[in-house]
Amino acid sequence: MAAAAPVISNWNPSMKHSDMERWICIYPAYINSKRTRQEGRRLPKENCVDNPTYTEIRDVLSVSNLPFLVENKKYSRENSSELEFRGRVRVQLRNVDGTLYNGDFPTRESIMQHIASKIPQLKTRQNKSGDSYHQQSQQQSNASGSGGGGGGGKKGKGKRR
């Protein structure tokens, strides 16, 4: 039997650092090199990764000795609501008394830089050659568009009689 999802309530000043509401949120857009700062990227482009997913972030955090929680949330600056762009990861940064949970990660930026540096080393990234999802969709659209009469373009009104 599956465990029930933890209940998250609204924030108030009396909450402890160990409460999930106080954990930091990381969306994949924060470390996506294809995004601009306006679109939600938080790190410099050279430190970011091409199209990370919440599952890759989860895989990196599961090894890094930090408590985390995956939520099915959509980033507010994300235009698409498809499943591949959904997902938020909450990470505990501090203990109950306010001390750091892990001294290697004093800030949220240090956690994001760690995640962005480890994602290219994942086995799922080693097998990919570029962005295979978009390459497949382009190949399918090219194949379906080549079965007609001519070079495409505007349809026009047709012949006048």
From TrEMBL:
Q: Which UniProt keywords apply?
A: Cytoplasm, Nucleus, Ribonucleoprotein, RNA-binding, Signal recognition particle
Polar residues: compositionally biased ranges: 123-143
> Quick check: keyword RNA-binding in the entry?
yes
**Transmembrane portions of the chain:** none
Family, per entry = Belongs to the SRP19 family.
Q: Where does the UniProt entry say this protein principally localizes?
A: cytoplasm
- Region (Disordered) residue spans: 121-161
In the UniProt record, the signal sequence range is none
* UniProt protein name: Signal recognition particle 19 kDa protein
One GO cellular component assignment for this chain's record is: nucleolus
Q: Which residues form a coiled coil?
A: none
Give the matching InterPro entries. Signal_recog_particle_SRP19, SRP19-like_sf
Q: Name one GO molecular function term.
A: 7S RNA binding
Which organism encodes this protein?
Answer: Drosophila yakuba
Q: Which gene encodes it?
A: Dyak\GE20421
Q: GO BP, one example?
A: SRP-dependent cotranslational protein targeting to membrane, signal sequence recognition
Annotated localization? Cytoplasm; Nucleus, Nucleolus
| Task performed by this protein | Component of the signal recognition particle (SRP) complex, a ribonucleoprotein complex that mediates the cotranslational targeting of secretory and membrane proteins to the endoplasmic reticulum (ER). Binds directly to 7SL RNA. Mediates binding of SRP54 to the SRP complex.
